[in-house]
Here is the input.
Amino acid sequence: MSRELFQHAMNIAKKAIQYDENGKYSLAVNNYVEAADILMRFIKTSSNPEMKQICFSKAEQYLRRARELREATEGPVYSEGGKRKVSKDSSRLREALAETIIMEKPEVTMDDVANLESAKQALREAVVLPIERPDLFTGARKPWRGVLLFGPPGCGKTLLAKAIANECDATFFSADAASLVSKWLGESEKLIKELFKLAKEEQPSIVFIDEVDSIATKRGSRDEIGGERRIKTQLLIEMEGIKGKAQERIIVLGATNRPWELDPAFRRRFEKRVYVTLPDEAARKKVFEIHTKEIPMDDDVNFDELAKITEGFTGSDIALLCREAIMIPIRELDKSGLLSEEAEPRPVRRSDFIDSLAKMKPVVSPDELRKFEEWNEQFGAE
Here is the structure.
């Protein structure tokens, strides 16, 4: 499969070069971009580091030529007075950001996040207070510019980030690091630069980078390809830039399930590191209540009991458990042929939860949890 992808990319690239030489620039651009995309797919499937590096260089070359052709044929945009406006390249980057990054004012509130009181307080001090009262954070009392949420998957890191943005009425830029890197090979450095430029225009703002470990891994590893280092460098530059300017009201909020893979330079820039751990018993009870809201429950359903027997479950695990349990009455109606007769489903029973629980296992193992605890002891800064 890898060989076929590589050969297909070379065939497309050959066409692009022919179109380029014959002055058919629009077709050349499309083929250069397509060849680069196919090479990126090849890089993901190949286990040969040297071949991956060669393909990355070729993909960058094709994308660079595609940009040159676009700029040569489209040119910059000017206003009537002869003053240069936002370039088409910048406008195109904004369009690309719109596809990759969600810019929103979140509606999630702290009430939607079950407990996590210590994490909430740490984020309030690191994010909300400096944005709401910048006058209090002057001189030696500097606001945090980089905050890292780390912990097992499914424990509410993304939900917590949105709730914090809502509380301080900041513009929330949600970026998925993995898609930013893979989808925009050769453009990622520019996109990151444009993202922070936009964040400055819309401040106070929070730049939330989910799965930040996929873009901020340790530099210099064998599998690292040329463009990845430049992307990391650009992100480091942007984070350092906002850190050095007291007037900027921008915070970079990262989330990761693999904090031990972060490059030390990124770890240093995430000055505040908040451990979002598994929900305790009280939090688990609240998660059950949130995810069964407005669903009729039998009198034998006891959320205190269910919270006790789901120790080690993430919030996401419990949400899935609830979805399965509350579907059982609907499933019974369907099997009995009464679904089309507008019959009402029975209330959800304790046995529905117990039966669903028997089919589920927690996603986080004790060994994995121990690894988070050790990293928190060494690097946590809550």
Remarks:
- The chain has three domains: 2-76, 99-277+371-379, 281-363.
- The first strand starts at residue 101 and ends at 104.
- Strands lie at 101-104, 146-150, 171-176, 205-210, 250-256, 272-275.
- Residues 99-277+371-379 form a domain with the Rossmann fold fold (CATH 3.40.50.300).
